[in-house]
Amino acid sequence: MKYLCLILSIFSTVLISKLGAQSLQVRSIPVPETYERVKYPNGSFSNYLQNLPLKTENKVSSFKKQDLSHWYPIFAVIYKPLLFQDDLEQCADFTMRLWADFHKDTNQLDSLYLFNYAGTKFHFKESKLTYLKFLRKAFASSNSYSIKKGAKEISYKELIPGDLFVQNETGGIGHVSMILDHAKSKSQEDLYLIGFSFMPAQEMHIEKSPANRGKAGWFSYEGFLKHLTENYPYGKPVLRRF
Q1: C-alpha closest to that of 33 among 223, 187, 160
Q2: Spatial distance between the Cα atoms of 237 and 76, rounded to a whole number of angstroms
Q3: Which residues of 218-227 are buried (b: 16+ CB within 10 A; e: fewer)?
Q4: DSSP string across 121-173
Q5: Taking a C-beta distance cutoff of 8 angstroms, is the pair 4, 33 a contact?
Q6: If exposure means fewest CB atoms within 10 Å of the residue's CB, which of 73, 104, 105, 129 is most exposed?
């Protein structure tokens, strides 16, 4: 079993390094043995995230074009180059960008909202801004605290791709991660691929689980909570949904 999981992990890494972003998506990453990928309806945010394209190489670039790959255990890197040339697309911002890009790519911009700092919804339709100016304003004026205050509270039993782990106790520095994919075993055990960005502004990667925090690079819920609290001391993680 241990060796099969290792082979699956190596196989996924080879795939990501050999295939281009046009032909490889999040859903191309193999699930662990005895697990099956959970299917979500076409047109849903969850399905959109499962089909995000991946970069050819596992290299995370910052807004200053620095290679930050050595900072993280990387499973794959999302193929979405940064939109701005300044320090705007940090962890919370990149999750907001994925939510916004989903609405743009599915022609639902009239339904798009993000949050102001206090957590009040900020609607694209009412903003009278271009898409990029709307994102810039949202990124510059909100953070993990805004998502914690404004987004819907959920239970760990409800987790699906698109849901968020939010850390922020005081309104200052915090952290946000987003579930990008979901697998389930025959015994109903859940595993997740989790999108991870940080600061300075940088591309989003899929964080690779240590062996004691999940299986074959996928995180268990409890495993990811421990991963966050041990490595990112920004407060107790809470669960949220846009």
Answers
A1: 187
A2: 23
A3: bbbbebbbeb
A4: EEEHHHHT--HHHHHHHHHHH--HHHHHHHSEE--GGG--TT-EEEE-SSSSS
A5: yes
A6: 105
Cis peptide before 233 (omega within 30 of 0): no
d(CA 206, CA 30): 13
Q: Hey, where are the domains in the chain? A: 2-241
The one-digit pLDDT tens for each residue of the chain (242 residues) are 434 444 444 444 444 444 444 568 999 999 999 999 999 999 999 999 999 999 989 999 999 999 999 999 999 999 999 999 999 999 999 999 999 999 999 999 999 999 999 999 999 999 999 999 999 999 999 999 999 999 999 999 999 999 999 999 888 899 999 999 999 999 999 999 999 999 999 999 999 999 999 999 999 999 999 999 999 999 999 999 99
CA distance 45 to 43: 7
Chain position carrying tokens 């009278």: 128
Residue 221's contacts (CB-CB under 8 Å, 6 or more residues apart) are: 156, 159, 190, 192
